[in-house]
Design brief:
Shape: globular
Distance between the termini: 32 Å
Bound molecules: flavin-adenine dinucleotide
CATH class of the largest domain: Alpha Beta
Mean pLDDT: 96
Number of helices: 11
Number of strands: 19
Length: 369
């Protein structure tokens, strides 16, 4: 066997890089092993929204996790830029959630009622007030909720900056290096198998997105991490300043005069490609929110595979009954938002420190017992 690689993190997406950054920052030897390039999968395909109020349907541990992660971004952005020179494009763009029908309005009002208690400032706007704020909005917008503290980053730059900062703190990155399997003796993990041989390490963190389940199967562990395809369109136009979130999708104004329109949610296995139907739906959604986008030139289109989980919640923490095995995946539509807190919690757990938030609700034990 080769020399000890320390903690081996499988996967160079945003989650693996965030974990490596937090471990390396605490002086823990760490090696990231990525079969392709950094941010080559979902982490490079994301819209980059930091939207804790989008997916949480009630107060609880998941919302707490999302809010805790959002609060880490201002200092993380500054730290990463100081260490790597890479700006992650962190902006409090604000999100305007809009209703187009009476049914949407009821749903929006219901969410507004409980979300007012989350600590994030929210403002209810009538349709005309929403159009005063964003004149390009459709006349069909009946009302909206403005959430000024939610925002966005550039997901690719975030991943690169986390990896760069991890390296600056001593982490090793092995790219174009697929992990073929996890080595073990009994229920103790010893490292990973690479095309070039064995890489020894006393702890393996599997952060391989929707491919996590496949790697664990080699250990006789059955954890479903299904891929959920998301397609996205980008326009050469920037008619809105805020992120606009409608009942069927969202618009995200990005740097360089571009707007993203996303995203589909599809269960089609590992087929990572766009479809004519998916892109037509996105275009209809985009012009339904902002009619001017009906005349805008399409800049590009792409698709990515989000890592899912059986109950829709992330899977973060040690695998019960195993020594030296941790999983961090299942972040579905929120992996960019949740990367900082995931990296922090996993590093705290591996270092034997108390965690900022309880990991119990996200433990792999809920599927592997
Ligand atoms: C269209 C779209 C829009 C999105 N928008 C947002 C958003 O606005 N906000 C948000 O928070 N989230 C968003 N997401 C979700 C977010 O992108 C994901 O949750 C997040 O990127 C998951 O990161 P990850 O590191 O777990 O997975 P990945 O990015 O998939 O990284 C896993 C890595 O593991 C590597 N790997 C797999 N198997 C092996 C192996 N055997 N050996 C070595 N390496 C391996 C892969 O090559 C990959 O690079 C979006 C996703 C999509 C597709």
């Amino acid at each position: 066997m080769e020399e000890d690689a320390g903690v081996i993190v499988v996967g160079g997406g945003v989650i693996g890089c965030a974990i490596a950054y937090h471990l390396a920052r605490c002086g823990v030897p760490v090696t990231v092993v990525e079969r392709g390039e950094l941010a080559g999968e979902a982490s490079g395909a994301a819209a980059g929204m930091l939207a804790p109020l989008a997916e949480a349907h009630a107060p609880g541990p998941f919302l707490d996790l999302c809010l805790a992660s959002l609060s880490l971004f201002p200092s993380l952005a500054a730290e990463l830029e100081a260490v790597t020179g890479i700006g992650i494009g962190y902006e409090r763009t604000g999100i305007l959630r809009v209703a187009l029908s009476a049914e949407d309005e009821d749903a929006l009002r219901e969410r507004y009622r409980w979300q007012k208690g989350t600590g994030l400032p929210l403002e209810w706007l009538g349709g005309d007030m929403a159009r005063e704020l964003e004149p390009a909005l459709s006349p069909r917008v009946r009302c909206a909720v403005l959430s000024p503290d939610e925002g966005q980053v550039d997901p690719q730059r975030l991943t690169m900056a986390l990896a760069g900062a991890a390296r600056a703190h001593g982490a090793h990155l092995l790219l174009s290096t697929p992990v073929a399997g996890i080595l073990r003796r009994g229920r103790r993990v010893l490292g990973v198998r690479l095309p070039s041989g064995l890489l020894r390490g006393g702890h393996v963190v599997v952060a391989a997105g929707p491919w996590t389940g496949r790697l664990l199967r080699g250990l006789g562990l059955y954890l479903a991490t299904p891929p959920r395809r998301g397609q996205m369109l980008a326009y050469h136009a920037r008619p809105v300043r805020h992120i606009v979130w409608g009942p069927d999708g969202y618009l995200v104004p990005k740097a360089g005069g571009v707007t993203y329109a996303g995203a589909t949610v599809e269960s089609v296995g590992f087929r990572r490609r766009t479809t004519a139907l998916g892109l037509r739906r996105l275009a209809r959604m985009a012009r339904g929110l902002v009619p001017a986008l009906g005349h805008a030139e399409v800049a590009s289109a792409w698709a990515g595979l989000r890592p899912g989980s059986p109950d829709g919640l992330p899977i973060i923490g040690p695998v019960p009954g195993w020594e030296g095995l941790t999983v961090a995946t299942g972040h579905f539509r929120n992996g960019i938002l949740l990367a900082p807190i995931t990296g922090r919690l996993v590093a705290q757990r591996i270092c034997g420190e108390g965690t900022d938030l309880p990991l119990g609700p996200f433990s792999p034990a809920r599927f592997l017992d």
